[in-house]
Amino acid sequence: GEVIAVETAYASCVDPEEPNSPLDFCTFCLARCAAPLPCPECTNVVFCNEECRSNGWRKFHMKECPVYPQLRKLKFRNIEAYRIIAGQSLDEHRAFVTKFKKDEKISPLEQILCEDEICDSYSYRSVYFLENNIKSTDIKGLIACSIRAFVMTQLMIQSNRYFVNYTEDKNEPDEEDIIFIGSLFIRFLLTISFNSYQIIETHVRVKEVSLVSEESVGSGIYIAGSLFNHSCFPSAMIFFYGNVGVFRASRFIPSGTQVCVCYTEHYSIEPDRAIRRRNLHKAYSFICKCEACLSKCRISFSDWKTSLSAYKVPKLKIKSKRVSRNDNESTESLELELKLLITKFSFITLSLSSPSFDITNCLDLTLEMIEFFDRFVVVPDPMCIQVTTIFQEIFHQKGSCYFVNK
Questions:
Q1: For the CA atoms of the chain, what is the radius of gyration?
Q2: How does DSSP classify residue 377?
Q3: Whole-model pTM?
Q4: In this protein, which residues make up the domain named MYND-type (predicted)?
Q5: At residue 313, does pLDDT exceed 50?
Q6: Structure confidence by residue, pLDDT tens digits, 67-107
Q7: How distant is the alpha carbon of residue 363 from its chain centre?
Q8: Are 323 and 330 in contact (CB under 8 A)?
Q9: What's the CA gap between 56 and 386, in Å, rounded?
Q10: Would you place residue 10 in the very low, low, confident or very high pLDDT band (cuts 50, 70, 90)?
Q11: pLDDT tens digit string along 209-220?
């Protein structure tokens, strides 16, 4: 549960496919708007306060406002890419790209780091050098991306607000300008497709607090979060407060080991290794070799009540030295402690169907279970994986959460 990183999205957008989302959430910070402020020039987006309206207008919405209805039809990635490019002037983009050319042959991590060797979540350099997998993208994918880039470039021209001179008057772009911006769109569209996080909000029913659902709010690109590798049994998870992502440890992370998040289906959601690997290869062009994919662990039970009654004490991490039965880290003591924890935890699982049961009150016991498994049990283990899903649900409710009267 410890916080690893807190990061605001470099670029984000409200879900354009949800009919009411652009008018329910601030287009700048993605917070739910109780008293929304409209855009001064359109009825397509809202802001949660004057500061967000001022910042959103200055950073990107002024340049997207005239063409936002068309952008909305193009879905997540296109709007994020438009906002990344709208955040810098044409001359600024040229200056940055010229400066970055000398760094194209250094390592990917060195490319992302700024001159003081710090990963700056708000640096154009960091987002420019994020992995885009252009070399592993097939011809069909590149053609589709190029078509979207062409459309986005044309919308930017039609807005009459990006290609302007120093007095903000319209300046017709020449062929070189169009090719340059189009190439940037291709780069950032690919970057976003491999690095964007879906931003969610948890919905809790007022009269039945045990019934929760996760609803899409939008998507965002997180620089530091993009540096975490994948695991189907991750050691960290992201939870959202608007477009602010909070990365929390979901397992014990030993010193010197990688922090991993889950890019697609978590092990508990899709236990079939072949399906997980196929989906990951299709989306991210790699074969997953995490501990969950390399282990023989299987999730065979369908509900908590069945799983608790059928669960057997797993393989424990035994100390190399001989221990007595009275040692609180002997096999017998650990098995007894685990059985007691499972007995306590059974109260949570059997209460999940109760309309008045608030799962957030069970955080301490959930963390105690995870800590025990990390210290003494060979993981991944079916029970540990299921406890991790409870952990995830608790912190989702502690993040962006909306109570609905249904």
A1: 24
A2: B
A3: 0.80
A4: 26-65
A5: yes
A6: 998 888 877 578 999 999 999 888 889 888 888 777 776 66
A7: 22
A8: yes
A9: 40
A10: very high
A11: 666 777 888 899
**For the chain, domain boundaries:** 60-196, 228-404
Return the bridge partners of 201, or none.
215
> Between the CA of residue 101 and those of 63, 96, 118, 267, what are the distances in Å?
27, 9, 20, 40
Long-range contacts of 116-120 (CB under 8 A, 24+ apart): 119/223, 119/224, 119/227, 120/223
pLDDT, residue 320, reads 39
Coil vs helix vs strand at 308: helix
Q: Return d(Cα 261, Cα 252) in angstroms, integer.
A: 13
CA 275 to chain centre: 21
Contact between 15 and 34 under an 8 Å Cβ cutoff? The reply is: no
β partners of residue 14: 218
Considering all CA atoms of the chain, what is the largest pairwise distance in Å, rounded to the nearest integer? 83
Q: Which residue has the tokens 């369908």?
A: 302
Query: Tokens for 38?
Result: 């409209």
Per-residue pLDDT, 329 = 60
The encoded tokens of residue 151 equal 């459309």
Average pLDDT, the chain: 79
Joined together, the tokens standing for residue 119 give: 């990963």
Minimum mean pLDDT among 178-182, 243-247, 251-255: which range? 251-255
How many angstroms separate the CA atoms of 51 and 181, rounded? Answer: 29
Helix, strand, coil percent values for the chain (each to nearest 5)? 45, 15, 40
3-class secondary structure, 285: coil
**DSSP readout, 321-352?**
S---TTSTTSHHHHHHHHHHHHHHHHHHHHHT
